User: What shape does this take?
Amino acid sequence: MNTKIFFLLLLSLSLPYSLFAGESITCASTNSTVDSGLFDYLLPIFKKDTGIEVKIVAGDTGDALELGRQGKVDVVLVHDRDLELQLVDEGSFIDREDIMYNDFVILGPQNDPAGLKRIPFPIEAFKKIRSTQAQFISRGDNSNTNMRENRIWAGTGIMPDRTDSWYHSANRDMAGTIVLAAAKQAYTLADRATWLAIRDKVYPALEILVEGDPGLHNQYGAMVVNPANHKQVNYQAAMNFVIWLSSPAGQRAIGDFRDAMGNALFTPNAGSF
Assistant: This one.
C-alpha cells in the first residue's frame, strides 16, 4: 500500500460513518467479479462499514476502462495490470492499487483428444491443440482474457487464422464461451472464478486440464477515474472504496468469499505485488 493510500486510510477510519451515509458511486468491473457473486458478497459489507452505495456496471476489462476514460463511472476494478499502469501514466486514472488475484486455466473435454493432461505449460498445451487440430473456442471479444489467450498463441510462434477449421471465435462473455466449449467438446481458456461459478452447468463435459503456471496469474486492480479530467467524479467516495478494498477489512472479506462448494475464488494481495 503506497504512502498516500496509507494516510487516506487512517483519515477515513477516523471519519464518522454519517459523513458518507447516502453517498453513491458507480464502479465498472469485469463479468468475472459479477458472475462469481463477489460483489453481491462485498458491497453490503462495504456499505455497512462506510454508508456508501456502489452501483456496478459489468463488461470486459476494455469496456470498463473505456467507461472510466470517458468519465461515465467513478472507479474501476479490472484485470489488465500493464494497461492499467499505462492509463495511470497517461492521466486517465489515479490511485491504483493491487487488490486480489486469481488465475486462468485451460479447460477441455474429459477425453482430452489433444492430450493436455500431461502438459504443464500453457504454450506447449496450445502447440498441442494446433498440431492435433483439436477444437478450440476463443472468446474473440478483445477482452483481457482474449488478450491473454492471444499472448499464449503468440508464444507458440504463430497465431491461429480464421481459415483454421479447428479455431472458433465465440464473441461471448466468459460464461457463454465456457458453455459453448462444453457443447462443442472444445478447449478454451477461462478465468478460474467464472469456471467455478458455472462448473455445475457444464461438468463433466469440461474439466481443468492445465493450471498453475505463473503465466496464468491474473491480477486485479482498482483505480479512481481522474477527477481533474471529469469534474462529476465522486472522488472522495470512490477513493474510500479503493481504500476499503485495500484495507485489512476489505482484504479479509475478499479472502472469506467462497462459492457454494467452499472454493476460494480470489486471493487478496493488496500491497504485496
